Amino acid sequence: MTRIVPVLDLSRLEQGHSESRTFLADLRSAARDVGFFYLSGHGITEDEIADVLTASRQFFALPETDKLAIEMVNSSQFRGYTRAGGELTKGKADWREQLDIGVERDAIPQGPDTPAWTRLQGPNQWPGQLPSLKPALLAWQAKATAVAIRLLKAFAVALEQPEDAFDPIYRESPNHRMKIVRYPGRDTTGDGQGVGAHKDGGFLTLLLQDENKGLQVEYDGHWVDVDPIPGTLVVNIGELLELASNGYLRATVHRVITPPVGVERISVPFFFSARLDATIPLLTLPEELAGEAQGPASDPDNPLFRDVGTNVLKSRLRSHPDVARRHYADLLDSTLAST
Ligand SMILES: O=C(O)CCC(=O)C(=O)O
Ligand SMILES: [Fe+2]
Question: Model pTM?
Fold first, then answer.
């Protein structure tokens, strides 16, 4: 049986010319057709996967006061802990708790003419009571970054571009972000929204899920289950890759259904994005591909900006209104923040 969401083996890229050509063709059609696939052969070991899931469970098991001590609302960089119900998707609360981690950098000094998105750069918040979390998550960040860069180069070649076509957009100062997420089970009186239907904003998302189901992708007007396959990562296309490919590749809508009572689901999404100061280029596709590019989806409620910093800030302000009110009150009347 062919799966709607296929499994692609990244190690085929290193198995000679003809295997690597067929891998690239499979990659292109998976990314274009459903926009979601499972990735095997990525080189991250079972132990490394187990370590990041264990570290995540240890964090969520901390007493609530320890988690609230690093609440995201303290951070103008949208880093830190969000309790269940604290994040919105399309204006509705998601039933998950999570810790957001970005790239560790110094905050940028602010002056009257400094663009608003520069406030997104800065330090993370780490729990004082679990010192092992920082090295565990930074190790995962480094491994996921390496896989994401290999994949992005493969996408460039699959789109008949030079392998390094996207390098200037992330070189030296990439702006990835990751989260550890816990979806607590809930009885059916809740509305079932673990995270509501959405597209991801970056280039590529690499998602690690534990053994519990709940992730679904929209395909052909239906919701398709993306149940866990041990050892794989789930990859999906984000809006920046859709923009760069003029809609040839698709950022697909997905969501997570709350697990039943007594079950908790842990996931670790890693969003590989671009430098905040980058502008997303429009690739010149060869004629046969250009003819199939439909232009990026346009949603009047979710305008896409080619300026990465502006785009990222827009989606953060919408997802976390409490952070927006505390740290970005000066922007709240602008189109950036309206839902
Ligand atoms: O937890 C998951 O499986 C998916 C999470 C997700 O789609 C997101 O955070 O963007
Ligand atoms: Fe997502």
Answer: 0.94
